[in-house]
Amino acid sequence: MVRAGQPGAGGRGLLLRQLGPGRAGPRHHRARHRRARRGPPAGRLAAGRLRAGRRRPVHRGGGRDRRGADAGRRGRSVPAAAQAPLRQVILHRPGDSPVHRLAPQAKIVAAVVAVLCVVATPREAFWAFGFYLLALVAVWAVARVPPGWFAARSVIELPFVLLALALPFTGAGERVDVLGVPVSVEGALAGWNILAKGTLGLLTSLTLAATTAPHDVLLGLRRLRVPAVLVTIATLMLRYVEVIAAEARRMRVARVSRGDDPRFLWQLGATARGVGALFIRSYERGERVHLAMVSRGWTGRAPGDEVRAPLPERSAPALVVERLAYAYPDGHQALFGIDLTVRRGERVAVLGPNGAGKTTFALHLNGVLGGGSGRVEVAGLPVDAANLREIRRRVGVVFQDPDDQLFMPTVRQDVAFGPTNFGLRGAELDRRVDEALAAVGMTAFADRSPLHLSGGQRRRVALAGVLACDPEVLVLDEPSANLEPVARRELAEVLLRLDRTTLMVTHDLPYALQLCPRSVLVDGGVVVADRPTRELLADAELLARHRLELPFGFRLD
Ligand SMILES: Nc1ncnc2c1ncn2[C@@H]1O[C@H](COP(=O)(O)OP(=O)(O)OP(=O)(O)O)[C@@H](O)[C@H]1O
């Protein structure tokens, strides 16, 4: 069912293959040797010596000295592009001016009114266009955004400028001589109309974008009561743009730190391959975001139009998995027959080496992956197409990377996403969201953008988004990954307070011991051991056979 979106190695391998050979071509090596023969520039040597002498490097010319210091350390040159600060956003220019502080809905209304005025102005009212431009320049001055910033971004208008410049010569009607060239009066006016109105419209939009963060624009639209479906579409588009921009930034860093410099013509091939890889990666990330949405009940249809699932027997175990086997669409078989029964209220750790099939298994528990063989039942209810909505309400999956899960403009809206899909509205929805945020200690962040939170806070919000669906079974994929020790401990406290059946996929063996009395060891797509966690972790031979090991200095008492 799902191909590239799976958090697997397929896409990553492809990316490495695509980037690898391109940047290490013979011409690239020749250029490097030429540079090596010439010797490093003075700035580089100076910085290298200063570093060796343990003195602060003197910054002559910004990035050059830093670049030299790095080159000295690694023994090869790094292009300046690697050192350039990475711009977080292309259109937004954060600031604290009165314009930035204005309510986003007020700015949206002002921008729309301004554009309408520009469009409605007769083309011969030259003074009016001059007035609009002066007004915009005044706003830029108050917002402290230099006109050059807008000029640089106005290049997208180039095709329209060319059209406007061509019209006086191609237009029909009366012609007048200008420096001996016959010019159409109607064409010149039409060109002016396009140029003046297009430029002012673009500058107005850029002014809004420059002074309003993208998520505030969405917030403004909601406050203006723009239909929810339009805001949702805008939100998804924004999320996708962010996905592409973030992937582009990561890939740029990865490329330039390995010697690529997009300014040089001979790197064009590598850059082009990078753009291709960028789209593949963005597609994969976009699909993971989609999987995370699906696992929180998103179907694209209004809730409540499905047949309700039959209530299961209360005595049925929380999870029954029998002979579960699964091959990805590219033919790679990840699961070869998983058997597992989990009782209600149990906390079970799923351990195993990289590529063992843990995530693939976890994604079967609420039907995000399916179509293989075997049986999965949740509280007596088979995981199949007829029960999917109910299964997803009962089994909440917290994804390995919180960025796959968080995409709404505010924390509160993101946490409300799942329960809304399951049909909750009004006071009941608010109560669920408040309780979930309180459970993970994120109440104070409810109105913040999830994208402005730290990694640990995002992980908590991702957990809250699943808790708000009130699932009976919680599936956590690597909950402690990338968490600092305190955040890791705090998350453990949150999880221990939750009274739910929990399956925790993890490489963090001490965390498994702390949180889960029982552990299953998965390798090669099957369960190879199922024991009390302490007993399993004490079996050093078993752990070694399956590439697991306790952290240095950790002892089981
Ligand atoms: N989308 C995909 N397409 C093809 N194969 C995939 C895909 N996703 C994962 N795989 C492969 O399936 C196998 C199991 O992957 P899975 O992500 O389930 O392992 P894991 O135990 O969770 O690994 P890790 O501990 O590294 O996260 C791996 O060999 C992986 O390369």
Automatic annotation (TrEMBL):
InterPro entries: AAA+_ATPase, ABC/ECF_trnsptr_transmembrane, ABC_transporter-like_ATP-bd, ABC_transporter-like_CS, ABC_transpr_CbiO/EcfA_su, ECF_ABC_transporter_ATP-bd, ECF_CbiQ, P-loop_NTPase
Residue numbers spanned by region Disordered: 1-80
Membrane topology: Multi-pass membrane protein
PROSITE patterns in the cross-refs: ABC_TRANSPORTER_1, ABC_TRANSPORTER_2
Residue spans crossing the bilayer: 125-143, 150-169
GO CC terms, sorted: ATP-binding cassette (ABC) transporter complex
Residues of the ABC transporter domain: 319-549
Protein keywords: ATP-binding, Cell membrane, Membrane, Nucleotide-binding, Translocase, Transmembrane, Transmembrane helix, Transport
Pfam families reported for this sequence: ABC_tran, CbiQ
One function term, GO molecular function aspect: ATPase-coupled transmembrane transporter activity
Comp. bias (Basic and acidic residues): 62-73
Biased composition (Low complexity): 39-50
Segments of skewed composition (Basic residues): 25-38, 51-61
GO terms, biological process: cobalt ion transport
Keyword Isomerase set for record: no
Predominant place of localization: membrane
Family the entry assigns: Belongs to the ABC transporter superfamily.
NCBIfam families on file: ECF_T_CbiQ (TIGR02454)
Protein known as: Cobalt ECF transporter T component CbiQ
Organism in which the protein naturally occurs: Saccharothrix syringae (Nocardiopsis syringae)
Name of the encoding gene: cbiQ
